[in-house]
Amino acid sequence: MDLLEQLNALPAQLKERLAQTSTEAELEAVRVDFLGRKGKLAELMAQMRNLTPEQRPAFGQAANAVKTSLIELFEARLAQQEQEREAAFIAGFDPSLPGRTLWNGSLHPITLAMEEVCSVFRNMGYEIAGGPEVETDFNCFEALNMPPEHPARDMQDTLYITDRVLLRTHTSSVQVRTMLKRKPPLAIIGPGKVYRRDSDVTHTPMFHQIEGLLVDKHVTMADLRGTLTAFVRAVFGEKTRVRFRPSFFPFTEPSVEVDMSCTQCGGQGHVNGQPCRVCKGSGWLEILGSGMVDPAVFTAVGYDPDEVTGFAFGLGVERIAMLKYGLTDLRMNFENDVRFLHQFPV
Ligand code: DAH
């Protein structure tokens, strides 16, 4: 076969090869084989020097025409492949399938519980107050009627930074800060993180509390009872029963612990004849600590205990979140597993 014949045979060969391609990669390999720098066409063109000078122009013209038709064939197959892919996609597309849900993110259960508690008190006229997590010994203990040798300091395993600076072990320090800055009357709520040297299945070294404080003339224990009962019922439902048990805190006198009827068994103490697991059969759940502000605390912050009285309370946010959302393991709150997190309302 002479050179011209070989040249003119190329389009038919290419057609045949193209018909066997199905992927883009195969197509590209064929293109390189025919039109590449070392491809079949280039090879024939290189042999042009073996022709007589009279033969060359005709061969050159033919080569150009063949090249054009090779490119056309290649592009036609490329377009055809694209059409085939599209057709295959449409054939496999089921418009009745549900769409992909866009995940919007949601609030952490602790954030939700914190916001709910704060909003109940905001609606009662309380203001949000805050303070740093790194606190002074004075704000965290001393002003709260816990002098250095006070045995109550042993109740809290404290993370100290220096002798007099520590990570706050409770949000009660917010009471002290606020009273040092402002004159009574005041009604504040102080949400935030607290730290203790404690870590096991039911304790994490960091957790969340909300502190409350009301100071005015003639505040009584009846105000404390009314306020905290209204709070518990706003968060856990109007049918919730509430009881006040005598207790002890250095910064309140008298002190009480507040229990509410169990969210799981409704205060029955049992579910289907079995002792309730949430309240361990007692029908009651401890929900917060509270009391009338101790006169020594007022004195420490420069208030006159003969002029004003008040009540304070402190509650654990993790506990509220767990009861509210029926969580069974405290640690879920800290694992940041999205499968857990996205079960909470946005
Ligand atoms: N600070 C206490 C704690 O961390 C909670 C508490 C109890 C706060 C009684 C108060 C209160 O304001 O009156 O366990």
Topology (SSEs and partners):
Layout: H1 3-19, H2 24-35, H3 40-46, H4 55-92, H5 109-123, E1 127-128, E2 134-136, H6 137-140, E3 165-167, H7 172-181, E4 186-195, E5 206-216, H8 221-236, E6 242-249, E7 252-261, E8 270-271, E9 274-275, E10 284-293, H9 295-300, E11 309-316, H10 317-325, H11 332-335, H12 338-341
Parallel strand pairs: 1-4
Antiparallel strand pairs: 2-3, 4-5, 5-11, 6-7, 7-10, 8-9, 10-11
Helix pairs in contact: 1-4, 2-4, 5-10
Bound molecules: 3,4-dihydroxyphenylalanine.
Give an account of the 3D structure:
This protein has 346 residues and is α+β, with helices and mostly antiparallel strands. 41% of the residues lie in helices and 20% in strands. It is built from twelve helices and eleven strands. The strands form three sheets. The chain has a seven-stranded mixed beta sheet, sandwiched between helices. It has a two-stranded antiparallel ribbon with strand order 2-3. A hairpin with a 2-residue loop joins strand 6 and strand 7. Helix 5 crosses helix 10. It is elongated and about 125 Å long. The model has no long low-confidence stretch (mean pLDDT 93).
